[in-house]
Amino acid sequence: xxxxxxxxxxxxxxxxxxxxxxxxxxxxxxxxxxxxxxxxxxxxxxxxxxxxxxxxxxxxxxxxxxxxxxxxxxxxxxxxxxxxxxxxxxxxxxxxxxxxxxxxxxxxxxxxx
Amino acid sequence: xxxxxxxxxxxxxxxxxxxxxxxxxxxxxxxxxxxxxxxxxxxxxxxxxxxxxxxxxxxxxxxxxxxxxxxxxxxxxxxxxxxxxxxxxxxxxxxxxxxxxxxxxxxxxxxxxxx
Lengths: 113, 115
Prior knowledge:
The complex is a heterodimer.
Chain A: E1 4-6, E2 10-13, E3 19-25, E4 31-38, E5 42-51, E6 54-57, E7 64-70, E8 73-78, E9 87-94, E10 103-104, E11 108-112
Parallel strand pairs in A: 2-11
Antiparallel strand pairs in A: 1-3, 3-8, 4-5, 4-9, 5-6, 7-8, 9-10, 9-11
Chain B: E1 3-5, E2 10-14, E3 19-21, E4 24-26, E5 32-38, E6 44-50, E7 56-58, E8 64-68, E9 73-78, E10 87-94, E11 104-105, E12 109-114
Parallel strand pairs in B: 2-12
Antiparallel strand pairs in B: 1-4, 3-9, 5-6, 5-10, 7-8, 8-9, 10-11, 10-12
């Protein structure tokens, strides 16, 4: 079974803190993604990576950055957390190819106070 | 603009009855279509996908979906609902062609199956 593991289920951080969300996948997938999930808005793509050290902006990259130093690991960084970044964050990975499905981690619910 | 619509925020069904969760899309070209399910406090799980061929696609847990090109729809169905099917369901579309990494999600439909 494909496994995508996010380092934390729940996080509470203070406004202005630098926050790291970690994601690891064990299926040697080329593509990895970070989404944000908010009620009524579905999932919105923040960033994705199609190879080590490669990244592309998604639909809502402002306030976020990412790092992919190893193929299995994709980190999302909130440089200076703000209350409007309180949300559920989902990591996903999938094989190369347009018709492959994505596999998701269990999610990290981040609260910024 | 490319988009996915799930017109119902919530669908209520009695256990044993058939269920339908609706999805329509607006993308250029021939899309790849997906359904995912999310149980409480969990990530999304893949249910099924349409790539090409037969318009009726069968997936996990007895779910199926029907692709209708003329109506640009991809409705999720199940002949007999279970209480354990209660969850949040997402339709997603990947446009064919350039930028295929992009997966566009609908807002989600909450399915409540009552005993």
